[in-house]
From TrEMBL:
Domain Semialdehyde dehydrogenase NAD-binding: 6-121
UniProt entry keywords in alphabetical sequence: Amino-acid biosynthesis, Diaminopimelate biosynthesis, Lysine biosynthesis, Methionine biosynthesis, NADP, Oxidoreductase, Threonine biosynthesis
Record keyword Amino-acid biosynthesis present: yes
Subunit description: Homodimer.
Binding-site residues, NADP(+): T13, G14, A15, V16, R41, S42, S160, G161, Q318
Binding residues for phosphate: R101
UniProt-listed Enzyme Commission number(s): 1.2.1.11
Known role: Catalyzes the NADPH-dependent formation of L-aspartate-semialdehyde (L-ASA) by the reductive dephosphorylation of L-aspartyl-4-phosphate.
Protein name per Swiss-Prot or TrEMBL: Aspartate-semialdehyde dehydrogenase
Keyword hit for Heme: no
Amino acid sequence: MANGFNVAVAGATGAVGVEMIKTLEKRNFPVKNLKLLASARSAGKTATFKGETIKIEEMTEESFKGVDIALFSAGGDISKQFRPAVVRAGAVMIDNSSAFRMDDDVPLVVPEVNPEDIKQHKGVIANPNCTTAIMLVAVAPLHRAKGLRRIVAATYQAASGAGAKGMDELLVQTRQLLDGQPIAPKAFAHRLAFNLIPHIDVFNENGYTKEELKMLNESRKMLHLPNLLVSCTCVRIPVLRAHSEALNLEFENDISVEEAREIIRKAPGVQLVDDPAAKSYPMPADATEKYDVLCGRIRQDISRNDKRGLDIFVSGDQVLKGAALNAVQIAELL
Ligand SMILES: NC(=O)C1=CN([C@@H]2O[C@H](COP(=O)(O)OP(=O)(O)OC[C@H]3O[C@@H](n4cnc5c(N)ncnc54)[C@H](OP(=O)(O)O)[C@@H]3O)[C@@H](O)[C@H]2O)C=CC1
Ligand SMILES: N[C@@H](CC(=O)OP(=O)(O)O)C(=O)O
C-alpha cells in the first residue's frame, strides 16, 4: 500500500503488545494509522509511537473498521472471539496465540523458515509458539543443508513467557524471599524465585505438556516434515526474559562442527556466538532485547558412532523473535 497500512495492535498493554509497538517503530514499518486496543481495564491509558501519544481503546467488534493489519496478542479466547470481526472488516489478522496454529487454512510462519507459506493465507496468519520459533531460526538452515530427522530438546524458559504477570511475579517473589516473607504463587504452579519448574502449559495424557507437544507439531508444520521426530522437556527458570534451549539434532547426512558454524554464520536471524576458549556462548542476558537468536556450544554428538549428530545451545528473546518481531516481519511480507 503506497501510503502505508492502518495497523491495530490487540493486546497493546501486554508483554508482547508493548514490544510490537516498539518493533513497528524501530523497523520503520509503514504505519498510516495505529490503533491500540486492550481490555476495558486499560481504556484511556496511553502509549507512545514515533513521539506521538496514542490513547488505548477498549477492543470491540467495531474496532477493526478501516484496519488493514491486526496484530493480535491478547490470548487465544480473545483471538477466537474477534476473528470474525477482523475478517469482516477485510483486515489480515496476525495472531500470536495458539488458537489457530494447527488449522489447515492458517499458515504458521517464521519468516526465516517458511516465508512462502504466507501466500496461502485466507485472512489469518499464525505466529508460532515462542520456544519453537527460536529453535527453528537456528535449526532450519541446518535442516536445509543436511536434512533433519530428530530433535531432543531441553528448554530453559524465562518468566516473560507467562506475560507481564509472570515477570512481575518473579521480581516480587525474589524480593519476598530475600526479605523472609511468605510467597503465594499465582502465575506459576510453584515458587519460581531460586527454583525451576519442569511444567509449562497443561499436561497431556502421554505425560508431555502442551508446550512440549507444540515443539513437535508446530515444527512439523513449518518445516513441512510430517515425520520429524521431536522429544522435549520444557522448563521454566528464574530468568526475567529470553528463552534458552539445549538441542540434540540428528540429520540424514554427515555434518561437522565447522560446517554447522559456517551455515549458522550465513543464516538470517541467527548470530553465531561460539568461542568456548573466550567463554563466549549464548546466554539469556545477552539475548535480551536482541532481534537475532544466539547460537553456540556447537559440538559433534559423541554418543553416536557416526557424524550425523550435533549438540547446540540457543538463546533468544522470545517476546521479540517468538512474538512481536516475528509478527511484524510477517506483516512486512504482506
Ligand atoms: N509472552 C510471550 O513470550 C509470548 C506470548 N504469546 C502469546 O501472546 C498473547 C499475549 O501474551 P502476553 O503479552 O505475554 O500477555 P500479557 O498478559 O502480558 O498481555 C495480555 C494482553 O491482552 C489484553 N487483554 C486481556 N483481555 C482482553 C480483552 N477481553 N479484550 C482485549 N484485550 C484483552 C490485555 O489488556 P489489559 O492490560 O487491558 O488487561 C493485555 O494487553 C498470548 O496469547 C500468548 O500466548 C506468544 C508468544 C510469546
Ligand atoms: N508458553 C510460552 C509462551 C506462550 O505464550 O506460548 P503460546 O503462545 O504457545 O501459548 C511460555 O510460557 O514460555
